[in-house]
Amino acid sequence: MSGSARGRREPAFLPWQLQTWFMHSVQESVKSLQDELEGRFSHAMTMLSNSRDDMEAQLVKAVVGLTSNQINTDHGQEEVGRVEAAHPSLALDRRVTEEA
Fold first, then answer.
1. Please, are residues 36 and 45 in contact by the beta-carbon 8 Å criterion?
2. Integer angstrom CA distances of residue 49 from 35, 52, 53, 58
3. Which residues contact 83 (CB under 8 A, 6 or more apart)?
4. pLDDT number for residue 1
5. Count of CB atoms within 10 A of residue 66's CB?
6. 21 with 13: CB under 8 angstroms?
7. What pLDDT is attached to residue 66?
8. By the 8 A CB rule, do 60 and 53 touch?
9. Which pLDDT band holds residue 15 (cuts at 50, 70, 90)?
10. What is the DSSP letter of 13?
């Protein structure tokens, strides 16, 4: 070995090798992100959308049920009063059932 070569270190990568390695690394990162978007992220978005739709359907059912119950209660009490006035024994039967 010559004296000038003793203290000199060779670079681990030549500039073109470093650029190739860097480009390969970036490509792998981009591929990983694409896989994530098409895989778990897409699946999660689908699940959230389905959940939102299911909850919306349940809320609609609940609102319809509450509205129907309110309408039936409002009109039902008037109707019950009319029936009990016409048939007093039904009023007595209902009171006995409620007390039990």
1. no
2. 20, 5, 6, 14
3. 90
4. 46
5. 10
6. yes
7. 87
8. no
9. confident
10. S
Query: What is the DSSP code string of 44-96?
Result: HHHHHHHHHHHHHHHHHHHHHHHHHHHHHHHHHHHHHHHHHHH-HHHHHHHHH
H helical segments located in 7-41: 15-36
Q: Is a pLDDT exceeding 60 seen at residue 100?
A: no
Task: Please state, in angstroms and rounded to a whole number, the distance separating the CA atoms of residues 11 and 20.
Answer: 15
What's the CA gap between 85 and 91, in Å, rounded? 8
Q: CA 9: distance to chain centroid?
A: 58
Task: Take residue 36 and report the two structure tokens written for it.
Answer: 């994530």
Share of the chain above pLDDT 90, in %: 30
Buried b vs exposed e over 29-51: b needs ≥16 C-beta within 10 Å? eeeeeeeeeeeeeeeeeeeeeee
Give the pLDDT score at 46. Answer: 94
Using the structure block, give the residue that is written with the tokens 């409620």: 98
